[in-house]
Amino acid sequence: MPRRSRGILAASIITVILLGLALAFYVVLGLPVNPLRFRPIAYLEHDMLPVGLPKSGAEYVHMAVENTSNSTVYLATAAVLSAGPSKKYTLAYLSHEEQGLLGASSPLRGYVIVIPPRSTVPCIASAPSGRLVELSLGIAPVQYEWTTDERYQLLEACERMYPYLPTRLRSHLPAPGMRHDTIPLELPPNTPGPSE
Length: 196
Description:
Blueprint: H1 3-28, E1 40-45, E2 60-67, E3 72-83, E4 88-93, H2 96-102, E5 108-115, E6 123-124, E7 133-135, H3 148-161, H4 167-170
Antiparallel strand pairs: 1-4, 2-3, 2-5, 3-4, 5-6, 5-7
């Protein structure tokens, strides 16, 4: 094969490889290849989750996410997408607004507190060893509007969560007995709480 042909072939192979890598990064980083695709935010080990969490599909869980890099706490509602062969659950935000609040930092380490539907006890999704859940956050193209019922469900879930949380998290969640219509969904930046 002439030297020029070999050069063209080598360049073509390199181009194909680079395009493949670019496409892989495009998909992995959650860019809108499919505008209806949910962006995964957390991969939770099975033993980090409470009994009764739905295995996949149409049910929601409520979460409080703490960004441990700046001690900010946010509320979120998530859909359980799958429990794949790696024995990890995949959760994805439904609310575009919540994604915007959390920002596009990725990856981010923080606590995820999961409240299954039909459960009165939340699960703090960090292993007993203190290993934190790895979050992959970004702006999702999914548009979602809160309904009144969902707002109430989220706030009621926070009330159930309240007694189990550290003070620094508790200070920015709705206290039991607060009127639901006076509680904003957007939580202010966390302030240092009493040491525990």
